[in-house]
TrEMBL record:
Active site: H210 (proton acceptor)
Single Gene Ontology MF annotation: NAD+ binding
Family: Belongs to the sirtuin family. Class I subfamily.
Organism whose genome encodes this protein: Dimargaris cristalligena
Any one annotated GO CC term: nucleus
Protein name (record): DHS-like NAD/FAD-binding domain-containing protein
Domain of life where this protein originates: Eukaryota
Record bears the keyword Zinc: yes
Length: 358
């Protein structure tokens, strides 16, 4: 059975007049810095948590246990969602103030729900295509200077200690790369990928399950380009920029007196609903490699696991972790997942922001 631990003011039922965050517990980073002198690199100096443990000494003791489990792990696999980026000012998708609700409010005359702007069917309409491009341009510009959160920093530190086996992220904001952990080049379909190559590549720690906004790709020639500010204005005007590679090939043909060819338009390197994942097989190889590495901790952060592919990944990884002698599955999220589907898989659900636990 899953154990639930309240860890935020949302779940606090205390009637005391004392401030809810007057007695915060030591963070994971603090425990790592002061409790384990053998660590090769000090844990990052992160902010004091903004919330406490609902004034429950029993809950504090349980969080102490959770901290020890995380810090004792030698092969940790992380699955993260939009919740870990909220403190950086990036909205999540599904909450009442999230992107889906905002997009529905702004474009309700053209879409049934905000999710429709992340569905491949949007390209069937010129109107929704233009709205999608405008949103991408505005969103990319809004996150350009956003910095990683304490959670991102802590996971990067775990990697520096050799304890982070893999970090599967559902986010497209690219904050993982700003900590120094870049997505692997072998997740591009043109890159030869084998399990041995994956396990040797120290930069393959982060696996973007839904792509990222760091790159643009041409659907025709599969050429990738960095999503630099030079492309912002085109998207903000509702137009996808043309592919420079295709345009050059076409110009060369015309100069040679040959027939013109189609010129592709760049699209964000993200995976939408109802379209095949271009790196699906490669991600499956990464997962199989991780299973063979026998992770002893699965850490699920800032997600309710609503996306089918991510849910399947977590279930497969959880079964592997459970087979280890002291394997644990820990979830940290504002809202609990309460269903029989997860009761036999998730050991502990900490109800609160990941930053506050860290």
């Amino acid at each position: 059975m899953t154990q639930y631990i309240p860890f935020s003011k949302r779940h606090c039922t205390c009637s005391s007049s004392r401030s809810c965050h007057s007695d915060p517990s030591p963070s994971l980073a603090a425990k790592a810095r002061y409790s384990n002198p053998k660590l090769s690199t000090p844990a990052p100096d992160l902010p004091t948590p903004s919330t406490c443990l609902a004034h429950s000494s029993a809950a504090r003791l349980e969080i102490e246990k959770v901290a020890k489990l995380i810090l004792a792990s030698k092969r940790c696999v992380v699955v993260s969602g939009a919740g870990i980026s909220c403190s950086a000012g990036i909205p999540d998708f599904r909450s009442s103030s999230g992107l889906f609700s905002t997009l529905k409010e702004q474009h309700g005359n053209h879409i049934n729900q905000g999710r429709d702007l992340f569905d491949a069917q949007l390209f069937n309409s010129e109107t929704t295509t233009r709205i999608f491009h405008q949103f991408i341009g505005q969103f990319k510009q809004s996150i350009e200077n956003v910095q990683p959160t304490p959670t991102h920093q802590f996971l990067s530190w775990l990697h520096s200690q050799g304890r982070l086996t893999r970090w599967y992220t559902q986010n497209i904001d690219g904050l993982e790369a700003k900590t120094g952990l870049s997505p692997p080049t072998h997740l591009h379909p043109s890159y030869p990928c084998t399990p041995s190559r994956i396990s040797r590549d120290h930069k393959s720690t982060v696996v973007p399950l839904h792509g990222d906004l760091d790159q643009l790709v041409c659907p025709l020639c599969s050429t990738y380009y960095p999503f630099t500010p030079a492309f912002f204005s085109s998207y903000q005007q509702g137009e996808a920029p043309i592919c420079p590679h295709c345009a050059k090939l076409n110009d060369n043909r015309l100069e040679a007196g040959r027939r013109p060819i189609s010129v592709g338009k760049l699209r964000p390197n993200i995976v939408l609903y109802n379209e095949p994942h271009p790196s699906g097989e490669l991600i499956a190889k990464v997962m199989n490699t991780d299973v063979r590495l026998k992770p002893d901790l699965l850490l699920i952060l800032g997600t309710r696991l609503n996306v089918h592919g991510c849910k399947a990944l977590v279930k497969a990884m959880a079964r592997t972790v459970r087979q280890q002698k002291h394997g644990k599955i820990i979830m940290v999220n504002l809202d609990p997942i309460q269903s029989k589907e997860w009761d036999d898989l998730i050991d502990i659900q900490v109800l609160g922001p990941a930053d506050d636990l860290i």
